[in-house]
Write a structure and sequence with these properties.
Shape: extended
Mean pLDDT: 79
Number of helices: 3
Oligomer: single chain
Strand content: 25-35%
Low-confidence stretches: 155-172, 177-181
Number of strands: 9
Structural class: alpha+beta
Radius of gyration: 25 Å
Distance between the termini: 88 Å
Length: 181
Amino acid sequence: MNRIIEILAGIAIIIITILFLFHAYEKSGQIQEAKGQYKLLANFDNIGGLKQGTEVMLSGVKIGNITHVELDYNYQYLAKVEISIIDEVKVPEDSTLQVASSNLLGDKHLKIIRGYSQTMLEEGKFFENTQSAIDIEDIIKKLISGFSDKNKSEYFNDKDLETKNYQEHFVDDSQGAKTIS
């Protein structure tokens, strides 16, 4: 009798473990949903650690996952991301795909900022507008270090800072736009 209870408990533990592993695998994005989906592509300077299975959101609602991430050797060494979106959601071609933070702990997802074009992105097309991940560490370093020593001496040791003519620091380029020299 004791032996039968132990065998049944062992079988129950094995079944629960299999169900847990299947659920975890499904949530990781490895198993595609039963709904029809289409693929879109995007290139980013910095994806901030995004990986296969990361959620794609529109208006805070999950509409897909990242299906593939690679370094695009043929296109300026940018991160090439392939996403899969449910068929019911059509994305205007002027939409922006942005790497966004999910929470303060650093989790990230892809966020679609909907555009206004009447033309929708089709299977295999690229997002023209992308916004890469913001590197908080670099921002904090810049805030802590402030200006470089050259900039400090040039701007903060000038006795008549208020009357300084800043126009001398701008140079016209070939298109007539002004850039900082």
